[in-house]
Amino acid sequence: MQPDNVFLPAVLIPVYNHEAAITVTLEQVLNSGLPILLVDDGSDKPCQDVLQQLAEQQPERVFLHRLPVNGGKGAAVKAGLRWLQRAGYSHGLQVDADGQHDIDDIASFIAQAQASPQSLVTGYPQYDKSVPRLRLYSRYLTHIWIWINTLSFTIKDSMCGFRVYPLMRVVPLLESCGNRMDFDPEIIVRWFWRYPDIINIPTRVLYPIDGVSHFLLWKDNSLITLMHTRLFFGMLARLPRLLWRKLHG
CB within 8 A of 12, min separation 6: which ones? Predict the structure, then answer.
């Protein structure tokens, strides 16, 4: 484990059956010069084989951590963040495998994280016409609940999976968070409850290279609804402290 004053970031990419996109995404991320951890979230064999080949091509830069069964994006990110901390890294930069994030922004994210190493640096999506309308509108509904559950507009977007996490601070929060698409919004709310240090960076978002979405409409929406309910009652329990922070922060 690194001392608090050492800044040693690595990239974390959760992957589930994105064999058509991950090669392009990884090639772009390699340009950042950072070490990269691929977390195979129980992918099928075609994707397993691609990930194995990619790791073998860059054994000093690209590491592969396999999960035996598919647990969901949140489960993969949790496993990856814990792996990075055990390996001695200080920060984990999460990037989606499907190519929707603007990899050129990695340098800006890392620079912000290095300047404010105790802060969570998160993307604030700037969409083009490729974004599905339904997904865009549903995000705004989630934003409203996030603002209610934090009593703050600090979090500009809670669902963007392009983030830099300080590992010493975030790993203790993981156990309370969901394992699927509910992870990204829940972890940032729980982070805000504990630490107000959040930096939002505008970043271009595209949809996506391989056209594969693992969002399960009924299951994931149900989990997200349960998450918002859970967070609402958590907010009520923290209401005095949040109000004090709002009034005196």
Answer: 36, 37, 39, 77, 80, 81, 84, 92, 93, 94, 95
DSSP 172-239: GGGGGS-SSTTHHHHHHHHHHHH---EEEEEEEE---SS------HHHHHHHHHHHHHHHHHHHHHTH
- Output the pLDDT for position 228: 87
Whole-structure pTM over 0.85, yes or no?
yes
Q: Which residues of the chain have pLDDT under 50?
A: none
Torsion from C-alpha of 63, 47, 96, 56, nearest 10 degrees: 20
pLDDT for 216: 56
Question: Residue 130: CB partners within 8 Å, gap ≥ 6?
Answer: 206, 207
Say which residues have a Cβ less than 8 Å from residue 24's Cβ, sequence separation at least 6. Answer: 99, 209
Q: What dotted CATH number matches 9-248?
A: 3.90.550.10
Please give the Cα distance from 150 to 239 (Å, whole number).
9
